[in-house]
């Protein structure tokens, strides 16, 4: 493999993952070289060109002044690595330390921004079959710059943490890194926590909660009233600082309430007990992750009066197509469709501007518009998300077959939707820009409702672990609306909302696209497999657009 890892393709930078550290590729001297180059675009293709271009746009106050660096690619392609490089670049070239009076305070801000990485990765990344450090959430990091374009703060927005991983992992994959770091490689995470202001006491609370979740994972149910696992149940209760009898009851007995009548107690089936145990683990971990993100933001976010522009870094999960796909993949692929649409619109605009500036004659190229696919997913009132939400609001047991019939009735006119007539499983197939994906319907409604039994919330509110108590203190266990109606804020509604906000930000900024490519599927260093590279490029890059340049 020739040691060339970057190239330009139109307005996109293509980054090839070397799968091993390349000496001096990102050194301080290289940063300086790009930062000081009179025309960085004329230097060798590099991620620092993208970084510098965005930075100079802010310096030049070129409208729109705020910038977005969109880093995409499949799992293991190098998005997180690239985002880290970009953050380090700005933490170096936009460092405000030398200008400020209090050196100490300022050094801390750049360091704190960088320190958010090991924490987020410890809690949000895991070893998967495709990447030993796979981000199991999407993130948008906003680097805040003051009038002199110096880095004064940052904020992080996260998307769709894969919380199911805490309750169970696919074969040969692992839980989130933090559960293993508790044994070793702990220092970096703890050091970063200290820098961000998570003191020893808070760390103690966090680690007790994590240890409690590990013990919870050992709890199994043999018969509804079986007491054969008291050890793990006791350990878990003691670490989560909740009464053991109540924990036990919560996991085993459902409380039914109808209006003002007194409660009825119904023992859960063994399968339901396990569902409740997993639900407890997921809700605690997700809430803890959210708390950490808020804490990090409080620690690194600059006061509104001190910053005026930003450079945003978007690192989102790439397009996913597995043997079995469900709601998570639908959301991820929907996000990719949105970004693809944004990319194509921006690409064509940039292309036209280039032709005009060079005085070339041009005519509109026909390109694959993915609006049909987006309508299929997000259409109101008739789209997969709307119908799914409608189904979840009906207070009845979910029926996958019935939902499939409904989808076919309502959406068969949309050319992006199809069904495999030979498949026995209720499913639907969506023709995405990057290929067709079949989604299983079984379990989709439950995932969308993501219900948490109120008993579990009541229990957590009683925790004597101050952090755990705080995580649930304001949560309404039954999710009652103002008129006593149950408010179901579904997973897809929340996701669609946060994505809409993200798209608004992207539309208001100057975008810069970097497409990371995995040059071989086995993550082998310096190995370039042409066929695999082409597959990645075709699915990932949407060559329709690129082919308009005839390269
Ligand atoms: N520029 C690079 N130089 C050296 N190694 C790299 C580079 N980019 C990526 N890698 C290696 O590839 C691995 C996977 O990269 P990374 O975690 O950034 O992928 P990703 O696209 O963020 O994946 P996921 O979507 O699963 O989070 C890294 O852990 C690192 O070992």
UniProtKB/TrEMBL annotation:
Keyword Nucleotide-binding belongs to the record: yes
Alphabetical keyword list: Actin-binding, ATP-binding, Motor protein, Myosin, Nucleotide-binding
GO cellular component, one term: cytoplasm
GO BP terms: actin filament organization
Segments forming a coiled coil: none
Binding positions for ATP per the UniProt entry: 73-80
KW Transcription (keyword) present: no
Domain Myosin motor: 1-551
Entries under PANTHER family matching the protein: MYOSIN, UNCONVENTIONAL MYOSIN-XIX
Region (Actin-binding): 499-521
UniProt GO MF annotations: actin filament binding; ATP binding; microfilament motor activity
Family: Belongs to the TRAFAC class myosin-kinesin ATPase superfamily. Myosin family.
A Pfam short name: Myosin_head
Organism: Oncorhynchus mykiss (Rainbow trout)
Protein name: Myosin XIX
Database matches in Gene3D superfamilies: 1.10.10.820, 1.20.58.530, Kinesin motor domain, Myosin VI head, motor domain, U50 subdomain
């Amino acid at each position: 493999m020739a040691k060339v890892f970057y190239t330009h393709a139109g307005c996109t930078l293509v980054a090839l993952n070397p799968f091993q550290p390349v000496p001096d590729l990102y050194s301080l001297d290289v940063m300086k070289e790009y930062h000081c180059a009179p025309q960085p675009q004329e230097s060798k293709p590099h991620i620092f060109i993208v970084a510098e271009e965005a930075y100079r746009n802010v310096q030049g106050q070129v409208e729109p002044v705020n910038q977005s660096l969109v880093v995409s690619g499949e799992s293991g392609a190098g998005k997180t690595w690239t985002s880290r490089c970009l953050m380090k670049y700005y933490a170096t070239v936009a460092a405000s330390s030398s200008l400020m009076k209090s050196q100490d305070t300022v050094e801390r801000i750049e360091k704190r921004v960088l320190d958010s990485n090991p924490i987020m990765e410890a809690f949000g990344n895991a070893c998967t079959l495709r990447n030993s450090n796979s981000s199991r959430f999407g993130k948008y990091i906003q680097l805040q710059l003051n009038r002199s374009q110096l880095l004064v703060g940052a904020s992080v927005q996260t998307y769709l943490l894969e919380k199911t991983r805490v309750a169970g992992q696919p074969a040969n994959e692992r839980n989130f890194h933090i559960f293993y770091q508790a044994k070793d490689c702990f220092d970096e995470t703890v050091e970063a926590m200290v820098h961000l202001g998570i003191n020893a006491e808070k760390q103690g609370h966090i680690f007790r909660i994590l240890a409690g979740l590990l013990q919870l994972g050992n709890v199994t149910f043999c018969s509804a009233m079986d007491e054969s696992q008291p050890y793990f149940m006791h350990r878990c209760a003691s670490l989560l600082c909740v009464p053991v009898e109540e924990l036990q009851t919560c996991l085993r007995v459902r409380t039914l309430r109808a209006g003002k009548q007194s409660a009825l107690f119904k023992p859960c089936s063994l399968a339901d007990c396990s569902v409740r145990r997993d639900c407890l683990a997921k809700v605690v971990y997700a809430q803890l992750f959210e708390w950490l993100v808020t804490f990090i933001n409080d620690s690194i976010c600059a006061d509104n009066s001190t910053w005026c522009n930003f450079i945003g870094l978007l690192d989102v999960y790439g397009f996913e197509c597995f043997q079995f796909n469900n709601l998570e993949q639908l959301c991820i692929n929907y996000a990719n469709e949105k970004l693809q649409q944004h990319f194509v619109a921006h690409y064509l605009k940039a292309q036209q501007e280039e032709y005009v500036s060079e005085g070339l004659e041009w005519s509109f190229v026909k390109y694959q518009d993915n609006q049909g696919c987006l309508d299929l997913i997000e259409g109101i009132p008739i789209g997969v998300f709307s119908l799914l939400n409608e189904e979840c609001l009906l207070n009845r047991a979910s029926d996958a077959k019935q939902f499939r019939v409904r989808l076919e009735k309502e959406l068969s006119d949309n050319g992006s939707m199809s069904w495999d007539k030979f498949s026995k499983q209720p499913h639907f197939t969506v023709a995405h820009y990057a290929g067709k994906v079949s989604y299983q319907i079984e379990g989709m409604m439950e995932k969308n409702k993501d219900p948490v039994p109120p008993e579990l919330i009541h229990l957590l509110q009683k925790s004597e672990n101050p952090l755990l108590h705080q995580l649930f203190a304001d949560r309404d266990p039954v999710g009652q609306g103002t008129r006593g109606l149950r408010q179901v804020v579904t997973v897809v509604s929340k996701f669609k909302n946060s994505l809409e906000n993200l798209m608004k930000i992207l539309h208001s900024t100057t975008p810069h696209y970097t497409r990371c490519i995995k040059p071989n599927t086995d993550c082998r260093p310096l190995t370039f497999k042409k066929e695999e590279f082409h597959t990645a490029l075709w699915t990932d890059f949407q060559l329709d657009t690129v082919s308009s340049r005839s390269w």
